[in-house]
Each structure stands twice: as C-alpha cells, then as structure tokens.
Amino acid sequence: MDPQAQPAPAQTPQQTPAASQTPTPPPAKKSGGFLGKLLLFIIIAGLLITGGYFLGTMGHKSPTDTTPTPTTAQAQVSPTQIPASPTSTSATTKTVKAGLTTSKTFKPYSIEVPAGWTDARETTVAADIDKLTLTKDGYSLTIYQAALGGGGCLYPGDKPSEMAQSFTDAADILGKGGQYKRSWNTPGAEKTISYTVCQKSTEDSSYGSITSFGVINAVSPNPADTSTLSEIDGMIASITGQ
User: Fold this and answer.
1) Which residues pair with 145 in a beta bridge?
2) Could you give the CA distance from residue 185 to residue 19 in angstroms, rounded to a whole number?
3) Which phi and psi (to 5°) does residue 104 adopt?
4) Rounded mean pLDDT of the chain?
5) What are the residue ranges spanned by the domains of the chain?
6) What is the pLDDT of residues 6-54, one digit of tens each?
C-alpha cells in the first residue's frame, strides 16, 4: 500500500423524503355523476321546450277551434205524415161546422178552412143528407153524409179482398178524428186526379172508404200543386166531432 495515498472520503448516504411529506393528489371524480347530471339537464331542457311549444300553439288557436259548434235538433217528419192541424201558408183560417144532427151513423163536425177556400153546404134533413164542398182554383174537397155503403181500401202489398178499392198511391194523414190515407191511382193523361180518403179501423189495421164523418173525396188538376194538396190534407186532419 502506498503510504501517500489518502483514503477516499466517506459518502454520506442521500436521504429520501419521508412519505408523509409527499403531497397526496385529490381523488379522481367519478365520471358517472357527471354523466347523470348531464342527462338530467337534457331531460329538463326537453320538457321545457316541449311545454313551451304546446303552450304556444294553444295560445294561438282560434276560438272556433275550442268552442263546440251548437247543433239544432230538427224534428224528423215523414213526407206523407201530416200533423193534426190545418197546414196552410195563409195567415188566417175559419171554422166551418157541418154534418147531420139526426144521423145514427155519422155525427156533426167542424173543419178548419184556410183563407182562399170557398165553402158551400147542402142539407136535406128529411133524407138525412149533408154535403159540404170546399173549392179553390180547380181543387175541391167534399164531405158527404147520407145512407151509404162502402168497402175497404187496398194498397200495394195488401191481400185481395171483395168489395174493396185498390190504390197505387196514398198519403198518410194523422188527424184529430183518426188515421187517414188520401188515396189515388197513378194518373195517365187525364186532366184531373180523383182522391178517396180512407180511414183506419180502430179494430184492426184495415182501411175503409167510409169515415166517421162520411165519404170524403178530393179532386185536383193533373199535375197537382203540392202546396195546395198540403192545404187539403191539413183540412182533413182538422176535422173533429162536435
């Protein structure tokens, strides 16, 4: 060994900082909480946008969109069903009384006659005959009471019957004195149309040409005016016993 050689200085060991002196990083935030808040924000924003849209459209609706339109109920009446009162476009009517007071078959009656119609009555008390004739512009309605014989009235679909008249057409009349049919046959080239008024029996559904007030007939031009026929039907409906 070389006496001049110096021993190497001893190295001081490097000290490592204690673990307690090392700063601890903050804990990482969970990604799930952020996503949940983001999703909740999106849902709330969507609800607000949707609600605003509906409120806006409802606020701009016209009043007619929300208010129901009222409907008026109209009475449904059959074209051939006549009410039990005179049907007339005239403002006034008059009451005409006629009929036999001594007959055991018929009874006196009254009838409502619209303005414009002329009435004429023929009565033979000894023979028990009474005839009322109402006329207007070529139209007539006759009610005849006497010792008469009559028969049934048949319509399409009815079974044939003896002593019965057959008709192709009829207009139903609901009257104060009963249920009637103004009956006729489809006219050809004739200038007039004759009508027979038949009354429904209270015992069955059959119709007969002798009514409670006598034999009722009508005549009209061909073709007939529906307005004037309506007046005739109204007069028939108004007949009532006295």
Assistant:
1) 130
2) 126
3) -90, -15
4) 78
5) 93-241
6) 444 444 444 444 444 444 455 544 445 666 666 666 777 666 665 555 5
Q: What are the angstrom distances between the C-alpha of 155 and each of 64, 166, 193, 220?
A: 52, 6, 17, 21
Q: In this structure, which amino acid lies at residue 24?
A: T
Rg (CA), the chain: 51
Averaged pLDDT for residues 225-234:
98
Q: Give the list of residues 6+ apart from residue 202 with CB closer than 8 angstroms, or none.
A: 178
Q: Given a cut of 50, is residue 154 above it in pLDDT?
A: yes
The arrangement of secondary structure in 93-241, i.e. its CATH architecture, is 3-Layer(aba) Sandwich (3.40)
CB 137 within 8 A of CB 219: no
* pTM assigned to the model: 0.64
Tell me the C-alpha to C-alpha distance, in Å, between residue 118 and each of 23, 52, 91, 94. Answer: 127, 76, 16, 11
